């Protein structure tokens, strides 16, 4: 098999943060007062089980979550059977210019009928009410990102109280540990406030046993059965119960062990919970914490980042407030990036039963009350959840997403056949854990037949970073191929121009004006074109790498050649639809046609400068509108867009706006009150992850066939360093810079490959070494090519 060449760019002046250890910076969020609401609490999680920790002194609230806690049930009648013949009739209406009639027919037949869709839901709150004899002082609440431990410290009288909370992946339990520096100091009352109606709670002097069935009829009948065990262990003191709550009196230490399971994928959740708790009791607290911190930090510590002088001596919420007042704090962006990695590790592990949903695995009991539910949206949100995984050196965190795709591909084959009469698989705007892959109930937001294609793009991107051909053969290519089979059959020839086109389809959630009226559906919106180009190109390359399916790949290439081009409209902006329609709502937050710029690479400042200018004008127009519907994910998009356009200061302004206007005190990003029908600020996970990805994109890019260091470095980040970020082709990169100029950099190959490095001629001379030996590398048009075997390294140092 030929080597897949990685091309690296620009300032790849590679160095190294030497021994691969963390810089010594304390990666933590900290506060000098307890949380008063959910959006101030601190998240912990193990990829399945999670909690929000409030850190109260009089009352501690631990808001509990489990990622499979869903309402709803499978729905065999989710779609309207339609088929090729009727689809062809609707398409002809569009080709004949009958946009009104085509949209009417699509609204009648190309919609889903979700009867039991359901939603992810929160479990309930464990409350610990403490009996203190005086007001507390010296309060501090922290979240240690590297070790994933939430800690609360305060003093009452002359007693120091310490509380630690973490969610262990090795043990699959949530652990709460209470201690004081004097004996008999801990007295409390514990109770459970269940948020699900159908729950039985048994209280004993050991703790709580909870069993029930989720009931949340807002989105249809049905729900998983759940079981939970909460065990209290004490050193000293006594435990009693009144049948409703549990009282601990004069204990020296208290350890609480919690597990929740459901029958979504398990035959006996009560037994699984009991087994997890029983196994955990065989280890003391010190061992549990040591195993947990080792497990988590081995992932988190792969990456380090410094963007300037740290202001970590101030509480995190006060730093955010100062940034909003105009006080520069570049290292707060570094903290936000690392927080994104922390959150992804916390809710998406190799053994997670489901991928991160709209709220990761946490749930504020608000998103699930919205019409859009707490589910999986495939018109950008679920994809954004994983944008930071590959560059952020967390490829394992993709695993549950790929498992979910395999499930969707099986479910979506029925929808492909029933709705479109096509082979392969399809998924639209929204999906759930019950196999819903039909269009949404309205075409304006729900008719997005390339939603599954978009999600599947992560399969190919993962390969580009890892070079794992076994994964490509067994996991990625089968799903990609079946998506391509659907699209190939679904495409139709436009008799007016000969192009292959999708449709009727929408540019997600946007509408255009035609003869003075707004319509959603058309033939071949730009986002479909971008996604299909990426899919076919990936499948053709898979076939080449795996040496199989040549005839199928040749067929895809023929189809690829018959797709229309990206177009610049009369306004000099990138067209969102094949026809140069005017937007019905120019202020709408969705910009799906800009997928060509990011995360894909079909628009480039170097290869397609005119399209890049058109994309820039599109972005500028959106952001200049006074009523622009800016939310967490759209602002995170702007960071990535501007990074690709090499507009460093505009990217930094978008980082700051995300942090100041769309991030709450606990640094979780929000869909802002008043937009998309939200009556409150609602936590949405995608802003944290896409924002973190954008910060990485400002520092390192590899999509152009070369790696570029500091492609969008703002003036405020003039001096700094990073360690362990990853590039396509299979390598980790470290870099240090001063006054905006790379001082040294290191590339460590994680696969065998040929790396091409462009060294900036105007930044001085560099010494290049391979495996610590001086290297005279071949250079062509300013690009230096170096072949590395796995674990070999390349270093470039600026010569003073």
UniProtKB/TrEMBL annotation:
Glycosyl hydrolase family 95 N-terminal domain boundaries: 29-264
A GO MF term: alpha-L-fucosidase activity
Every Alpha fucosidase A-like C-terminal domain range: 701-793
Residues in Glycosyl hydrolase family 95 catalytic domain copies: 285-699
One GO term of the biological process aspect: carbohydrate metabolic process
Stated name of the protein: Uncharacterized protein
């Amino acid at each position: 098999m030929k080597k897949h060449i990685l091309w690296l760019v620009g300032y790849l002046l590679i160095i190294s943060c030497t021994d691969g250890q963390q810089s010594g910076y304390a990666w933590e969020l900290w506060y000098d007062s307890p949380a008063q609401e959910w959006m101030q609490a601190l998240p912990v999680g193990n990829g399945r089980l999670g909690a929000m920790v409030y850190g109260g002194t009089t009352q501690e609230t631990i808001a509990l979550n489990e990622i499979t806690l869903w309402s709803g049930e499978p729905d065999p009648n989710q779609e309207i059977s339609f088929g090729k013949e009727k689809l062809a009739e609707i398409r002809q209406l569009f080709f004949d210019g009958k946009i009104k009639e085509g949209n009417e027919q699509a609204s009648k037949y190309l919609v889903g009928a979700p009867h039991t869709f359901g939603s992810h839901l929160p479990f309930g709150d464990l409350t610990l009410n403490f009996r203190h004899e005086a007001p507390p002082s010296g309060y501090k609440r922290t979240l240690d990102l590297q070790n994933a431990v939430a800690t609360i410290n305060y003093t009452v009288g002359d007693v120091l109280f310490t509380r630690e909370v973490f969610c262990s992946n090795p043990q699959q339990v949530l652990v709460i540990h209470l201690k004081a520096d004097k004996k008999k100091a801990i007295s409390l009352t514990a109770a459970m406030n269940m948020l699900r109606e159908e729950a039985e709670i048994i209280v004993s002097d050991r703790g709580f046993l909870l069993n029930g069935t989720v009931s949340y009829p807002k989105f249809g009948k049905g729900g998983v059965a759940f079981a939970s065990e909460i065990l209290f262990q004490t050193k000293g003191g006594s435990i009693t119960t009144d049948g409703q709550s549990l009282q601990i009196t004069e204990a020296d230490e208290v350890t609480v062990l919690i597990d929740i399971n459901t029958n979504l994928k398990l035959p006996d959740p009560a037994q699984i919970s009991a087994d997890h708790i029983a196994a955990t009791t065989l280890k003391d607290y010190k061992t549990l914490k040591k195993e947990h911190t080792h497990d988590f930090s081995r992932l988190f510590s792969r990456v380090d980042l410094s963007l300037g002088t740290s202001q970590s001596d101030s509480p995190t919420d006060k730093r955010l407030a100062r940034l909003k007042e105009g006080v520069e704090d570049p290292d707060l962006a570094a903290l936000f990036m690392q927080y994104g990695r922390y959150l992804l590790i916390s809710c998406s592990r190799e053994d997670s039963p489901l991928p991160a949903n709209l709220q990761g695995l946490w749930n504020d009991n608000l998103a699930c009350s919205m019409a859009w539910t707490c589910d999986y949206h495939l018109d950008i949100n679920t994809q954004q959840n994983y944008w930071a995984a590959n560059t952020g050196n967390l490829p394992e965190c993709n695993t549950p997403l790929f498992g979910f795709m395999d499930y969707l591909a099986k479910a979506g084959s029925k929808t492909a056949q029933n709705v479109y009469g096509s082979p392969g698989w399809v998924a639209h705007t929204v999906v759930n854990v019950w196999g819903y892959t039909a269009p949404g109930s309205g075409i304006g937001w729900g008719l997005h037949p390339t939603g599954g294609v978009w999600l599947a793009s992560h399969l190919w991107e993962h390969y580009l970073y890892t070079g794992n051909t076994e994964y490509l053969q067994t996991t990625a290519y089968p799903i990609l191929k079946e998506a391509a089979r659907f699209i190939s059959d679904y495409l139709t020839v436009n008799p007016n121009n000969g192009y292959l086109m999708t449709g009727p389809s929408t540019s997600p959630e946007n509408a255009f004006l035609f003869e003075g009226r707004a319509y959603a559906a058309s033939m071949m919106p730009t986002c479909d074109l971008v996604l299909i180009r990426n899919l076919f190109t990936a499948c053709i390359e898979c076939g080449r790498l795996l040496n199989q399916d040549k005839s199928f790949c040749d067929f895809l290439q023929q189809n690829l050649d018959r797709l229309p081009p990206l177009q610049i409209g009369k306004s000099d902006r990138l067209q969102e639809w094949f026809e140069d329609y005017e937007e019905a709502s120019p202020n709408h937050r969705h910009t799906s046609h800009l997928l060509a710029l990011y995360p894909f690479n079909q628009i480039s400042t170097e290869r397609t400068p005119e399209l890049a200018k058109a994309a820039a004008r599109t972005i500028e127009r959106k952001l200049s509108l006074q009523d622009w519907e800016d939310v967490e994910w759209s602002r995170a998009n702007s960071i990535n867009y501007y990074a690709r356009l090499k507009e460093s200061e505009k990217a930094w302004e978008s980082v700051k706006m995300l942090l100041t206007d769309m991030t709450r005190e606990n640094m979780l990003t929000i869909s802002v009150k008043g937009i998309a029908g939200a009556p409150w600020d609602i936590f949405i996970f995608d802003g944290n992850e896409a924002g973190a990805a954008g910060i990485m994109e400002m520092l390192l890019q590899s999509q152009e066939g070369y790696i570029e260091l500091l492609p969008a470095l703002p003036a405020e980040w003039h001096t700094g360093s990073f360690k362990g970020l990853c590039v396509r082709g299979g390598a980790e990169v470290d870099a240090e810079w001063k006054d905006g100029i790379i001082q040294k950099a290191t590339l460590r190959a994680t696969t065998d490959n040929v790396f091409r490095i462009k060294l900036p001629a105007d930044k001085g001379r560099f010494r290049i070494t391979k495996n610590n030996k001086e290297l005279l590398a071949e250079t062509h048009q300013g690009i230096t090519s170096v072949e590395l075997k796995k674990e070999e390294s390349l270093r470039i140092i600026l010569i003073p």
